[in-house]
């Protein structure tokens, strides 16, 4: 017979958690002081992120930040005795956790739930705060960061229970103690005992660590709020979510600047050169395995993750294509190796509720995934898959997958009939796209353009190759290829869900510098080369009809370089627009099926 472990009072943890110390990391206008562009400061920042109502949820209000003081890039909370999530970690309790705008957003939503409940005088209609389900990509900090932040912030309730499978830490605000309980049944009995004494509380139930779904009756029916924290794996939460009609919070991955700020915190106090070197290493890891903190800060973790990613790529089957490109939850119904190739991104239903979609976890893995799908799928099925992804366009990373349509003659033949030239204001004469005059010049294979960290080896430029960035935040284009007749032409591709896509001179300058770094003899090659830009628009967007400008940030202080770039853009570039309408997609499918 199984014995139940006696409860343990954890001396000093209560005071350590609720007296946690604040720090924050701010972005600097340049890299000169720290070589990373980040600086650590003591205390809680005076200004944090602002959020606004969007549909049924909240989103960060970037507009508010333009008119007020800049928020921090990152906040840090430190508890000397650690936090419940890592108390039993092999390396010992972790004292710090990071708060970015995504973690703060979780708290703002839960805080709004609690405020509505506290203000509710008719408890028969709303006996408990809204039940919540927090879902995010494994390894991004849902448990350590979001869970610990909720524990720290929920002040007005008398009891907070932080559960990890069968282990529960009970924070009793009245006694100011933390008690550790083992065994799910014991934890439920303890919660019921507080409820029977008329005490209100909140349960943070973490499934991700031990994979133990919560019982549907774990929380009392009244007076207690509850949030379940989980990976997207459906069996972790589906029954609880349905029975309790829980509302979802989808947590996105940290972005590049968030990770850079984390590096600044971890390497504070060391020489600036070492800080910059560490960031370069982490950035390389992030470009290859995605922005997942669990795998990018340590070399061994990164190497193990790369091996798992490579195994997942080899294991891809034709049926995985739809899951990997069109999102949805089906990928997460069972243990599928392809889960290591994707991250989840937040989207909203027409009524404004939060849902998640799958997207490549980073540009490099996205390219490798596509190449693997090309090998395991028939040509017809692969093209149909691309057409399906083009009509979805759920994320910037996924948009690049749609570029592979340019590898197919059938797509090019149909596209050139629909291309519309955008006439520049100067009234230059019109010109047919080089692709229309030479349809055989379309690319037939792809090559990924790596990041410039640590330098790249220049290689000869190849015609009929679709070059796709294998890093995020690539300047100006989503892809580029070169046509050698009727004239040597650079064709830039921009997949856009916007009704306009203007650019600035610094972006064009960065793009030219990238090309010079990638290709041998670019300076000479580019002198006589024509430039074209094709804007591929989504069916739901207003079609572009006007010239897309290249502007200067400060028009009152133009440099000679900026003037040259604007003159080049307006005098040498030709722009074309194409709308991927349902009719076009249907026509392509008909052609492909025949």
Automatic annotation (TrEMBL):
Residues 430-443 have a biased composition (Polar residues). Pfam families: RHS_N, RHSP. This is Retrotransposon hot spot (RHS) protein, putative. Residues 14-119 form the Retrotransposon hot spot protein N-terminal domain. Residues 426-450 are annotated as: Disordered. InterPro entries: Crinkler_effector (IPR052980), RHS_C (IPR046836), RHS_N (IPR046835), Trypano_RHS (IPR006518). Residues 133-423 form the Retrotransposon hot spot protein,C-terminal domain.
């Amino acid at each position: 017979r199984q014995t139940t472990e006696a409860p343990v009072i954890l001396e000093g943890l209560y005071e350590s958690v609720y007296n946690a110390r604040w720090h924050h990391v701010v972005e600097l206008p340049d890299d000169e002081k720290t070589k990373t562009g980040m600086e650590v400061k003591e205390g809680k920042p005076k200004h944090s992120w602002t959020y606004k109502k969007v549909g049924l949820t909240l989103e960060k209000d970037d507009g508010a930040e333009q008119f007020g003081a800049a928020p921090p890039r990152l906040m840090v909370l430190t508890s000397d005795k650690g936090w419940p999530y890592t108390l039993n970690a092999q390396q010992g309790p972790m004292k710090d956790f990071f708060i970015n705008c995504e973690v703060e957003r979780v708290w703002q939503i839960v805080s709004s739930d609690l405020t509505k409940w506290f203000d509710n005088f008719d408890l028969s209609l709303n006996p408990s705060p809204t039940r919540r389900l927090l879902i995010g990509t494994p390894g991004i900090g849902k448990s350590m960061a979001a869970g610990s932040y909720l524990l720290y912030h929920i002040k007005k309730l008398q009891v907070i229970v932080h559960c990890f499978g069968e282990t529960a830490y009970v924070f009793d605000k009245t006694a100011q103690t933390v008690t550790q309980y083992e065994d799910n049944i014991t934890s439920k009995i303890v919660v019921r005992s507080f409820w029977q004494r008329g005490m209100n509380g909140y349960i943070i139930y973490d499934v991700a660590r031990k994979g133990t779904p919560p019982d549907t009756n774990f929380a009392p029916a009244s007076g207690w709020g509850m949030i379940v924290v989980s990976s997207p794996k459906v069996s972790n939460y589906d029954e609880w979510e349905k029975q309790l009609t829980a509302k979802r919070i989808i947590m996105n991955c940290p972005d590049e600047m968030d990770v850079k700020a984390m590096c600044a915190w971890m390497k504070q106090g060391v020489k600036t050169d070492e800080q910059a070197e560490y960031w370069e290493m982490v950035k390389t890891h992030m470009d290859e395995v995605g922005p997942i903190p669990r795998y990018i800060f340590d070399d061994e973790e990164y190497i193990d993750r790369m091996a798992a990613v490579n195994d997942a790529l080899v294991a891809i089957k034709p049926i995985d294509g739809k899951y990997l490109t069109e999102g949805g939850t089906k990928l997460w119904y069972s243990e599928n190796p392809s889960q290591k190739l994707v991250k989840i991104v937040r989207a909203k239903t027409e009524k404004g509720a939060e849902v998640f979609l799958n997207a490549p976890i980073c540009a490099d893995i996205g390219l490798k995934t596509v190449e693997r799908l090309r090998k395991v799928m028939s040509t017809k099925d692969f093209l149909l898959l691309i057409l399906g992804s083009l009509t979805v366009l759920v994320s910037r990373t996924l948009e690049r997958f749609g570029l592979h349509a340019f590898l197919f003659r059938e797509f090019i033949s149909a596209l050139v009939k629909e291309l519309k030239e955008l006439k520049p204001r100067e009234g230059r004469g019109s010109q047919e796209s080089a692709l229309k005059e030479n349809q055989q010049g379309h690319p037939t294979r792809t090559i990924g353009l790596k990041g410039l960290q640590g330098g790249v080896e220049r290689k000869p430029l190849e015609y009929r190759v679709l070059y796709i960035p294998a890093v995020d935040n690539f300047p100006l284009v989503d892809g580029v290829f070169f046509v050698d007749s009727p004239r040597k032409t650079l064709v830039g591709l921009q997949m856009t869900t916007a009704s306009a896509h203007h650019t600035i001179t610094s972006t064009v300058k960065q793009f030219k510098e990238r090309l010079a770094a990638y290709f041998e003899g670019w300076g000479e090659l580019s002198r006589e080369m024509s430039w074209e830009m094709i804007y591929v628009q989504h069916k739901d967007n207003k079609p572009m009809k006007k010239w897309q400008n290249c502007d200067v940030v400060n028009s009152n202080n133009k440099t000679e370089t900026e003037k040259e770039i604007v003159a080049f853009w307006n005098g040498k570039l030709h722009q074309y627009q194409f709308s991927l309408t349902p009719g076009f997609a249907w026509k392509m499918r008909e052609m492909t099926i025949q």
